[in-house]
Write a structure and sequence with these properties.
Low-confidence stretches of chain B: none
CATH architecture of the largest domain in chain A: Up-down Bundle
Strand content of chain A: 5-15%
Shape of chain A: elongated
Helix content of chain B: 55-70%
Shape of chain B: elongated
CATH class of the largest domain in chain A: Mainly Alpha
Number of strands of chain B: 7
Strand order of the largest sheet of chain B: 6-5-7
CATH topology of the largest domain in chain A: Butyryl-CoA Dehydrogenase, subunit A, domain 3
Number of strands of chain A: 5
Helix content of chain A: 55-70%
Mean pLDDT of chain B: 90
Mean pLDDT of chain A: 89
Radius of gyration of chain B: 21 Å
Number of helices of chain A: 7
Number of domains of chain A: 2
Radius of gyration of chain A: 23 Å
Strand content of chain B: 5-15%
Order of helices and strands of chain A: EEHEEHHHHEHH
Structural class of chain B: alpha+beta
Oligomer: heterodimer
Largest interface: A-B, 68 and 67 residues
Distance between the termini of chain A: 6 Å
C-alpha cells in the first residue's frame, strides 16, 4: 500500500476533463449526471463505457476500411476515357511519376496512419482487457500518438476536394469523387471518435490495483 | 473547496496527483509517471492569444475572399476558392463529403476563432463574458476538428499531381490560408487554458 502512488481516484477526487478542476467525489450527487461545479461539463471518474464504445467504433472502422481501399476514391474522366483511382493506386502513381517526397507523405497519411491506428487501438483495448502491466508509460505515449496523428489521414479527402474543383474542363478532363472517399473519410472520423472515447487511465488502473493487492 | 486541493493537479492520462509547484516564466509541470504536460506557465497568455486570434480572423476572411489556385489548360482557366471543392462535391452528389470538408476546413476554424475572440476580448479588459465556461468548453471541443493544416497538405498534393498536366497559379487566398495556419497555431501555443478556467467562478 505504501508504494502505491497517489491518484485522484484513490483520494476520492474526480478530474473534470473539460476544465481540469478537481472535484470531490462525495460532494457530487449520486448517479451519473454529475456536473463540474466550475464549467458545467459532465464529470466522470473514468470516461463512460470507454472500452465498449472504443471497441464498437474500432470494429466499425475496421469494416469500413475494406470499401475504403477497394472502391475508387476518385475517377479521372479524360476525353471519354475514365480511370478510377483507389487510395493505393494514387500512391503508386506518385511513385511512378518519381514524386518521392509527396508519395511518402501520402503513403504515410493514407495507409500507414489508418492501419497503425486500428492496430494500436485494438492493442490498447486488449492490453486493458487482459490486465497487462507491461510498460504502462509507453502504452500511454502510444495512446497520445494515436490520438494526435489521426487527423492527418484527411489529406487524401482534401486533395480530392481540390482536384474536383480545379479539373472541370468539360470533355477535355474532369475529376469526379468516388464512393471509396466516403468510406475512407468515415474511417478517419470514426477512428478519431474511437481514440477520444478510450480512457488511458484504464491502463494505469490495472497497474495501481495490482500494487494495491500485492504489498 | 479546501486550499490543499486547489494546489493539486491530476494527470488527465494516468490520474496521478501532483502538487502544483510555483512556476517561473515558461516552465511547465510534467506528469512524473506518464510524461503528460499538465500545466505550463505562459507569459501574458490571454493578451498574446487575443492578438493572434484577431490576426487569424483577418486572414480567414482573406483566405475565403480570394481564389486559392488557378488551373490553366489549353486556353481554359478554372479558378478554385476555399469553398469550391465543397460546392463541386455537393454538385456531384457527395453531400456527406461536402458537409465534412466544409465543417473541418471552414466552419470549425471560423467557430474556433470567433468563440476564442468572444472569450479573450472581454477578459483582456477584465470583464467576464456571458457563459464563459460554456463557450470555452466549445473551443476545446472544436480543437481537433479544425483541420486547416491538413487541408494545406491536401492542396500541395493536388498541385503536385497536376503539375505536369497543366499550369497551376497560386493566389492570394492560398497565401492567406498559410498565414491562417501559422496564426492559429501561434494562438494555440500562446494560450494556457488553465488561465481561462481560473477566471470562471465556482458555483456552490
Amino acid at each position: 500500500m505504501k508504494s502505491s502512488p497517489p491518484t485522484a481516484a484513490r483520494a476520492s477526487l474526480i478530474l473534470c476533463h473539460a476544465c481540469h478542476l478537481l472535484v470531490q467525489a462525495k460532494s457530487l450527487p449520486p448517479g451519473c449526471k454529475a456536473r463540474c461545479p466550475r464549467c458545467g461539463a459532465k464529470v466522470y471518474l473514468r470516461k463512460p463505457n470507454s472500452l465498449a464504445r472504443t471497441w464498437a467504433l474500432t470494429l466499425a472502422a475496421l469494416i469500413l476500411y475494406i470499401p475504403a481501399n477497394v472502391l475508387p476514391v476518385m475517377t479521372v474522366v479524360s476525353l471519354g476515357h475514365s480511370e478510377p483511382d483507389t487510395i493505393l493506386s494514387g500512391v503508386k502513381e506518385l511513385i511512378a511519376a518519381n514524386m518521392w517526397p509527396i508519395a511518402l507523405l501520402v503513403f504515410f497519411a493514407s495507409i500507414t496512419v489508418p492501419v497503425l491506428k486500428l492496430i494500436s487501438l485494438t492493442y490498447l483495448l486488449l492490453s486493458v482487457r487482459l490486465k497487462s502491466r507491461w510498460r504502462p508509460r509507453d502504452r500511454t505515449v502510444l495512446y497520445r500518438i494515436t490520438e494526435a496523428v489521426g487527423r492527418w489521414s484527411m489529406i487524401d479527402i482534401f486533395m480530392i476536394s481540390i482536384l474536383v474543383a480545379l479539373v472541370r474542363l468539360g470533355n477535355i478532363a474532369t475529376i469526379e469523387a468516388g464512393p471509396g472517399a466516403i468510406a475512407f473519410a468515415s474511417v478517419v472520423v470514426i477512428t478519431m471518435f474511437a481514440a477520444m472515447s478510450f480512457d488511458p487511465r484504464l491502463i494505469w488502473d490495472v497497474v495501481d490495483n495490482a500494487e494495491h493487492e500485492v504489498p | 473547496m479546501a486550499n490543499s486541493e486547489e494546489s493539486l493537479l491530476a494527470c488527465h492520462d494516468c490520474d496521478l496527483l501532483v502538487r502544483k509547484p510555483r512556476l517561473r516564466t515558461r516552465e511547465k509541470v510534467v506528469c512524473s509517471r506518464c510524461g503528460a504536460v499538465l500545466y505550463s506557465h505562459k507569459p501574458d497568455s490571454v493578451g498574446r492569444a487575443l492578438n493572434f486570434s484577431l490576426a487569424s480572423l483577418i486572414v480567414f476572411v482573406l483566405a475565403n475572399a480570394y481564389p486559392l489556385l488557378a488551373f490553366k489548360l489549353q486556353g481554359q482557366v478554372q479558378l478554385c476558392d476555399l469553398i469550391s471543392g465543397v460546392k463541386e462535391l455537393y454538385r456531384q452528389g457527395y453531400w456527406e463529403l461536402a458537409v465534412l470538408v466544409f465543417s473541418v476546413s471552414i466552419l470549425t476554424p471560423f467557430l474556433k476563432i470567433t468563440s476564442l475572440l468572444y472569450v479573450l476580448l472581454p477578459l483582456r479588459f477584465n470583464r467576464r463574458p456571458w457563459r464563459l465556461a460554456y463557450v470555452f468548453r466549445c473551443v476545446e471541443t472544436l480543437h481537433p476538428w479544425a483541420m486547416t493544416e491538413v487541408f494545406l497538405l491536401g492542396i500541395i498534393v493536388a498541385i503536385v499531381k497536376l503539375r505536369d498536366i497543366a499550369i497551376i497559379v497560386t493566389g492570394v487566398g492560398l497565401y492567406s490560408f498559410v498565414a491562417l495556419i501559422v496564426l492559429m497555431a501561434a494562438a494555440d501555443a500562446a494560450l494556457e487554458p488553465h488561465d481561462i478556467w481560473e477566471q470562471v467562478e465556482v458555483e456552490r
